[in-house]
Amino acid sequence: MNGLFDALERAAGPVTFAPGATLLRGFALEDAAALLAAVDAIAAAAPMRHMVTPGGYTMSVATTSCGELGWTSDAQGYRYAACDPDTGLPWPAMPALFDTLARDAAAQAGFPGFQPDACLINRYAPGARLTLHQDRNERDFGAPIVSVSLGLPATFLFGGIKRTDPTLKLRLAHGDVVVWGGPARLRFHGVLPLAHGTHPVTGAYRINLTFRKAR
């Protein structure tokens, strides 16, 4: 897989790195400032928090959501909910810019007609990580996942259908977008611990927007 990784590092345009999985380098750069301003507004209404997994583990990534549904986790399990469990209020509406970006990225990657109803917003501080997992809480596996990277660079892990399958490591920079669906929809993926650094826009953080069709 090293040869493919090297090619992806040099890629300037869309690159399909697995059947159903595409990297769009710099796709969100033009909208990055507006996206981050929207994240700040969403977090003011639904603050970032470190959720607890069903196994009792506190996630190192801080998270919030926007859209018709928001992703949540506690001792009862992973699920989507119409209201923020911390405030009892509906999640903030998904900004039009978010919706347009997600639809455009999905179409560019070969998934026209994507209609996201949930956006999970993750904030990574140095050392924060996301262990290998599958996105299985959605009802419609026919829709892709659209993931937008902002701020500090991160190493994205993309594996197979089994947790023990080999993983490809992709270095994701500010403005990069990854889309996976179809045969790649249930592949394991994660993020290695974020390295220390400072980004001119986000400081010591990485922000990730993950768009899903949850129902």
Provide the helix percentage. 10-25%
Count of beta strands = 13
Order of helices and strands: HEEHEEEHEEEEEEEE
Distance between the termini: 34 Å
How large is the radius of gyration? 16 Å
Shape: globular
Total domains: 1
Largest sheet: 7 strands, antiparallel
Give average pLDDT, whole number. Answer: 94
Describe the structure.
- The chain has 215 residues and is of the alpha+beta class.
- The chain has one domain (2-212): Jelly Rolls.
- 17% of the residues lie in helices and 31% in strands.
- It has 3 helices and 13 strands; from the N terminus they run αββαβββαββββββββ.
- It has helices at residues 2-10, 32-45, 96-108; strands at 15-18, 21-24, 62-67, 70-74, 77-81, 118-124, 130-133, 145-151, 154-158, 168-172, 177-180, 189-191, 206-212.
- The strands form 3 sheets. The protein has a 7-stranded antiparallel sheet with strand order 1-2-11-8-13-6-3, with helices on one face. It has a 4-stranded antiparallel sheet with strand order 7-12-9-10.
- Strand 1 (15-18) and strand 2 form a beta hairpin.
- The longest helix is centred in the N-terminal third of the chain and has 14 residues, at 32-45.
- The radius of gyration is 16 Å and the shape is globular.
